[in-house]
Amino acid sequence: MSFAGEASSDVPTLPGTHSGIPAYLLEKARNAKGDVFDGRTKPIKDRQRLPVVPQGIERDDFLAALAELKVQIGNENVEINDKPLKDGWYMEHPNTHDMMTILDEEELVASAVVYPSSTEEVQDIVKWANKHRVPIFPISMGRNLGYGGAAPRVRGSVTVDLGKRMNKILDINPEDYTCLVEPGVSFYALYDAIQEKGYHHLWIDTPDLGGGSVIGNTVDRGVGYTPYGDHWACHSGLEVVLPTGEVIRTGMGALPGNNTWQSFPYGFGPYSDGIFSQSNYGIVTKMGMTLMPNPGGYESFMYTFPNEEDLAPLMEIIRPLRISMILENVAQLRHVTQSVAARGLPRSQFYSGTGPIPPDVIHAAAASAPVGDHTWAYYGMAYGPAHIRAHKLALVDAEFRKIAGARKVDPATLPADEYYFSRDRVAAGVPDIHELRWVNWAPNGAHIAFSPVSPIRGTDATRLFALGKRLHDAYGIDFFPAFCVGLREMHLIVEIVFDRDDAERKQAALDCLRDMIDEAAAMGYGEYRTHLVLMDQVAATYSWNDNALMKFNEKLKDALDPNGILAPGRCGIWPKRYRGRGWEMTRESGAASEGDGVGPAPEAKCDQGEFSGASHPYP
Ligand code: EUG
């Protein structure tokens, strides 16, 4: 088949490839790759394509502008996207489109990709974009899987792939427990570098999968699973290229000669960092990150609970333990359906019917697995020397056993490739690749997340669970809820796994997501992060006081990016030139990712004697 060529090459490795796998995971990555391609039937559309040209510029002008960019950045560092779109897989992911697209695969595509090697070149690219009014979309590494991957929101944007050539670890400070990284440093690479230096007293915090960019994940406010799991809270200091080409350093970085950029995040005056997370206000080219001290010991624990109704009392038990840090890390409470899928086998091995997989099938599958049957599985970790752990573990044990049928799983009874050990590594800051496995649940498996935030409360957990379950059942989708428990809130992560070669299933997934977002918002719940396709809808749910927050965001956008060139539409923030022209993607707009042209840029407006009132005002 046409994807055979893709499957045949080996897995790229660190340090030769910045986005590669570390040696200790190579065998696992090879197996994961085999599983992904075993389940693949989607052919590559074998056609040559003219590059998509972004709206607001003529094709010839666009091609001339790209030629100019090649002179500036180097011929080999500007690639026109005119080849067939290859989805690849996690370790060999495309930077031209969303490898897990829920739309037609030609919707969220780049026209070209440019690879800067320095902050100065990023500034050059930004100035070029302003000159030619070309939308650019920066990615660190493009592994924002489940949220759009590497794809730009505006079709035909020029993707600025920062990571390929800007992938240096600029500093690891073993006394202050901090580091300074560029966008192309993955959690794998940071972990590897720390081991290489023999700094065993330094821990990093990693998400479920370690291939993502430390900067990319942090500025999208991603989460890991040690006590340093709130990545944004743990960063200190940014270097940012603004949409008009200036470069700033935030916090102490603004003080020449400082030695506190990575230890005191706030500096003096307004704390600007926030506006550079989940936004389109700047391109982060350096970021400081705090590192955790090795706690001197750690011990994972796993409890299972038999019934769906155990969720509410369990949350009431978890909340005080978590807030008082007896439960120390961002733990996961996972539903049995996802536990079964995490074995990595396709759903067809368990069930051949359509519609959601029946509970008795899931429970039978769970019963035959090493962990045994359950409905909820809690994965946590205690940190510190043995006597300190023993104290915390005893408190947790006494509380969790108040749920009838609670069972503590003995790790000695589990085989080495059991999911438990992946959670164990991740909670100890060791990046893994295991989490990919449940994506094989569907052929041509892809995933997209619904990620609402709630307090750690039984009533909230139950309401969100019931909402998700009802809508998944209605659309015939298997329900994979996992609660990631932060300090005073939870991110409920519901990943919908779908066959990305099945238009009907993609539409069902999208409809289900749109219903969940609307219904959750009506109940007072909002998403902490979302996919490109859902950003307008999610942003519109944060509407208090007549959309006051979005009006403020737009004011900032227009002030910082008057030509509207930087990641238009990201997180629902549209520059003035795009507003009122149907660029928003909503249920009503269907699957079209493009709007009806762009307005004149401010300077052009004056030059051409046009007035702002002539185009569509903001509604
Ligand atoms: C996961 C966790 C996330 C997220 C997407 C996926 C992991 C799934 C805590 O945040 O946003 C098992």
Automatic annotation (TrEMBL):
<protein>
    <recommendedName>
        <fullName>FAD-binding PCMH-type domain-containing protein</fullName>
    </recommendedName>
</protein>
<dbReference type="InterPro" id="IPR036318">
    <property type="entry name" value="FAD-bd_PCMH-like_sf"/>
</dbReference>
<dbReference type="GO" id="GO:0004458">
    <property type="term" value="F:D-lactate dehydrogenase (cytochrome) activity"/>
</dbReference>
<dbReference type="InterPro" id="IPR016166">
    <property type="entry name" value="FAD-bd_PCMH"/>
</dbReference>
<dbReference type="Pfam" id="PF02913">
    <property type="entry name" value="FAD-oxidase_C"/>
</dbReference>
<dbReference type="InterPro" id="IPR016167">
    <property type="entry name" value="FAD-bd_PCMH_sub1"/>
</dbReference>
<dbReference type="Pfam" id="PF01565">
    <property type="entry name" value="FAD_binding_4"/>
</dbReference>
<dbReference type="InterPro" id="IPR016169">
    <property type="entry name" value="FAD-bd_PCMH_sub2"/>
</dbReference>
<dbReference type="InterPro" id="IPR006094">
    <property type="entry name" value="Oxid_FAD_bind_N"/>
</dbReference>
<dbReference type="GO" id="GO:0008720">
    <property type="term" value="F:D-lactate dehydrogenase (NAD+) activity"/>
</dbReference>
<dbReference type="InterPro" id="IPR004113">
    <property type="entry name" value="FAD-bd_oxidored_4_C"/>
</dbReference>
<dbReference type="GO" id="GO:0005739">
    <property type="term" value="C:mitochondrion"/>
</dbReference>
<keyword id="KW-0285">Flavoprotein</keyword>
<dbReference type="InterPro" id="IPR016171">
    <property type="entry name" value="Vanillyl_alc_oxidase_C-sub2"/>
</dbReference>
<feature type="region of interest" description="Disordered">
    <location>
        <begin position="585"/>
        <end position="619"/>
    </location>
</feature>
<dbReference type="InterPro" id="IPR016164">
    <property type="entry name" value="FAD-linked_Oxase-like_C"/>
</dbReference>
<dbReference type="InterPro" id="IPR016170">
    <property type="entry name" value="Cytok_DH_C_sf"/>
</dbReference>
<keyword id="KW-0274">FAD</keyword>
<dbReference type="GO" id="GO:0071949">
    <property type="term" value="F:FAD binding"/>
</dbReference>
<feature type="domain" description="FAD-binding PCMH-type">
    <location>
        <begin position="106"/>
        <end position="294"/>
    </location>
</feature>
<dbReference type="GO" id="GO:1903457">
    <property type="term" value="P:lactate catabolic process"/>
</dbReference>
<keyword id="KW-0560">Oxidoreductase</keyword>
